[in-house]
Design goal:
Keywords: Hydrolase. Helix content is 38%, strand content 20%. With 179 residues, it is an alpha/beta fold. It has one domain: 3-Layer(aba) Sandwich (Rossmann fold), CATH 3.40.50.850. The chain has a 6-stranded parallel beta sheet, sandwiched between helices.
Length: 179
């Protein structure tokens, strides 16, 4: 494995797709997914990784859940695919690795990931921070994204690849997020 295949905090952006108040109660395992997204946000803040968030139809689905609110700038959208919103694409630097979590895996999240991959972006999907109402919808969506080139990772993989070494000045603080 080359270092190019590892996630690098210095060239990553955490993208949080549609973790919204009115949607989350219907999402399978929602509280655990939100807790993992919060761990990612906290690690990003410790390590200087920028965060970008989206909200699908916020008037209908509500704003971002309280646990994640304020983590980064929010792009409101009506399109399922975040890439259809020019402000979303404008917020992404060309050379960034994109670490994505969010909902729903088979709708807004999946369409966003597939569009980013079609644009030749390096995309890492944090499977334990991605949700759908039905577990089978999430499973099928993850397999599809992986077939198209997304790397499927976990919250813990992201945090420790961003750190790289136990000698990192933020190691102690970041590793506490996982425990």
């Amino acid at each position: 494995m080359t270092s190019m295949s590892l996630m690098d905090a210095g060239r990553s952006r955490l993208v949080i797709v549609d973790f919204q108040a009115r949607l989350m109660p219907a999402i399978h395992d929602g509280p655990r997914l939100v807790a993992n997204a919060r761990r990612l946000v906290d690690a990003a803040l410790l390590l200087g990784v920028p965060v970008l968030m989206t909200e699908e139809n916020p008037a209908g689905l509500g704003t971002t859940v309280a646990e994640l609110a304020g983590a980064g700038p929010v792009i409101a959208k009506m399109s399922f695919d975040s890439c259809a919103e020019p402000a979303f694409l404008a917020a992404l630097a060309d050379d960034e690795d994109l670490i994505l979590c969010g909902c729903e895996a088979h709708v807004c999240f999946g369409q966003t990931v597939l569009s980013l991959l079609a644009r030749k972006r390096r995309v890492f999907v944090v499977q334990d921070a991605v949700g759908s109402r039905a577990p089978e919808s999430k499973e099928v969506a993850l397999r599809r994204m992986e077939r198209h080139g997304a790397e499927i990772v976990t919250t813990e993989m992201v945090v420790f690849e961003w750190l790289r070494t136990a000698e990192h000045p933020q190691f102690r603080a970041a590793s506490k997020l996982i425990k």
